[in-house]
Structure formats: structure tokens, C-alpha cells
Amino acid sequence: xxxxxIAWLYVVFMMSITEQSAVAGVTTFLxxxxxxxxxxxxxxxxxxxxxNRQKREKLKAAGQQQTEADGLTKxxxxxxxxxxxxxAHQDARTGRDHEN
Length: 100
What we know:
88% of the residues lie in helices and 0% in strands. The protein is mainly α. It has two domains: 44 residues; 36 residues. Helix 1 runs antiparallel to helix 2. The protein is rod-shaped, with a radius of gyration of 34 Å. The N and C termini lie far apart (70 Å).
């Protein structure tokens, strides 16, 4: 795709250097070369940008799911520790040994 763009810029450059004045040459280069080529390359790159965006969203969603899963695991282990500590405190208050 880029080889065609480079070839087109070469053709437009050759057209622009044959113009009668520098202003006409620059105008030719901009109006026949740069502006149309910018639009064409933008439109040709749309599918790739769409794929990149979908991939980024997919990775972000997977990362959020992983974070949520890690959060649940951490909160479950925190609940277990709190439960174990609560049992130890109850045993200390009652004076009885508690075996699991």
C-alpha cells in the first residue's frame, strides 16, 4: 500500500516541478499529492484501526475480569483470615481451646 503512495508522490512531484512558478508547483503538490493521499491513506487504514481498537477492548475486558477474579480471591482469603482471628479471639475470651 505504501509503495503506491510513494509512487504517486513521485509522479506528483514531477508534475509540480514542471509548473511555471513555485506557487503553482507547491499548489499542485499539495492539491494533487498530499491532500488526496492523506484522505486515501486514512480510509485505507480504517480496517486496521478497527481491528486494533477491538483487540484493545478485548484485552481490557479480559484484564478487568482477571482483576475482578483476583479481587474475589483476595477478599475470600481476607474473610477467612478475619474468621480465623475472630475464632481465636473468642477462644481467648472464653478460655477454651478451639481446634479446627
